[in-house]
Design brief:
It contains 10 helices and 6 strands; from the N terminus they run ααβββαβββααααααα. It is α/β, with parallel strands linked by helices. Strands 1-2-3-4-6-5 form a 6-stranded mixed beta sheet. Helix 2 (22-33) crosses helix 6 (201-210) and helix 7 runs antiparallel to helix 8. The two termini are 39 Å apart.
Length: 340
């Protein structure tokens, strides 16, 4: 079997957002929002799956909007689920905008504020958003700035799932949370449904929907176009990063040269004074400048490369970071260890 990539636009919505996927979406949301507790009793998908026919910026992300009903309280919540493949400019602001808009547009003119239902914005990213946080799932609510006391109304919650941080292998999967995250990360690389995941009916059904054999020709074509679009966008980003890195390395070399020349002049003067003022200064300065220039080139380039590599950790794979910065794999590994 060949499975489509759940991270790619229409595939994500086809698996989780169709009329036949309510049980899949309930299992998925219970796992990621409610820590695998069976909190959601039922839900209504507000914008059910329709295969998109227009390509464009919207192809870089996709929303599923659903109204959930909690089992014990009967409380209703609106959930916005967004799968984001590319880290585009303004993404963080768009998340806040969508959550606030979904919250504020619930009421008609003259309606009471007590009728407002809470909103959860669940954002799944194929890149690292919070490198300072080690956990895969992060949850944000309103708090008092100085004392970190929760705002009394939990009506807007932002939940982020950073897929690159999930590194468990098949043999390490224990919870249903693990299994859903593994499905998102690895489904397209599998040729069969793993036994440890197939024992969850909703995940088994998700694999069935993701099977390419069950797609129409139009859907397969749309999936292929989506993959090409993402590859093109990532290629453009990588090209821009490489250009910026080259400029930064050039600036680093120039700075290193200046520092090296200063050190070389200082060393040359010291050597010259020791050897005899006139002849010593001439020889010492020449030797010092040569040595300082070489050291400056090396130190400037390396220091700048290390600074750039630090910023790229968890954003790109090791091979790309080494290719862009010129660092060796051993140097990159040492840098990772030092940053832990």
């Amino acid at each position: 079997m060949i499975f489509i990539n759940p991270k790619i636009d229409f595939a994500f919505k086809k698996i989780f957002g169709s009329e036949d996927s309510k049980d899949i979406l309930i299992s998925f949301l219970n796992a990621l929002i409610y820590e695998a507790q069976p909190v959601i009793q039922d839900l209504e998908i507000i914008n059910p799956y329709v295969a998109p026919k227009i390509r464009g910026l919207k192809s870089t992300y996709l929303d599923i909007k659903a109204k959930i009903i909690e089992a014990e309280t009967g409380e209703q919540r609106t959930v916005i689920i967004e799968m984001q493949v590319l880290n585009i400019e303004g993404f963080e602001k768009r998340i806040l905008y969508n959550a606030a808009k979904s919250y504020s547009t619930q009421l008609g003119s003259g309606h009471d504020y007590s009728l407002l239902n809470p909103v959860i914005a669940l954002t799944i990213t194929d890149f690292v958003m919070f490198p300072e946080l080690g956990n895969v799932i992060s949850k944000f609510i309103l708090k008092e700035k100085d004392f970190l006391i929760d705002y009394p109304i939990y009506d807007i919650e932002l939940i982020f799932v950073e897929l690159p941080k999930f590194t468990k292998e098949l043999s390490d999967l224990v919870t249903i949370i693990d299994k859903w995250l593994y499905f998102m990360n690895k489904a397209r690389y599998l040729d069969d449904v793993p036994e440890v995941m197939g024992n969850i009916p909703e995940i088994k059904k998700a694999f069935y929907i993701a099977n390419q054999a069950n797609l129409t020709l139009d859907e397969l074509d749309d999936q292929e176009k989506s993959e090409f679009f993402i590859q093109d966008q990532r290629g453009a980003v990588t090209k821009a990063v490489k250009k910026a890195v080259k400029q930064a390395l050039r600036e680093g070399r120039e700075q290193g040269i200046r520092q090296g020349l200063e050190q070389g002049l200082e060393q040359g003067l010291e050597q010259g004074l020791e050897q005899g003022l006139e002849q010593g200064l001439e020889q010492g300065l020449e030797q010092g400048l040569e040595q300082g220039l070489e050291q400056g080139l090396q130190q400037g380039s390396r220091q700048k490369a290390l600074e750039i590599a630090k910023k790229m950790l968890n954003l790109m794979d090791d091979r790309t970071i080494c290719d862009v910065t010129g660092l060796s794999l051993d140097e990159l590994t040492a840098l990772k260890i030092s940053e832990q």
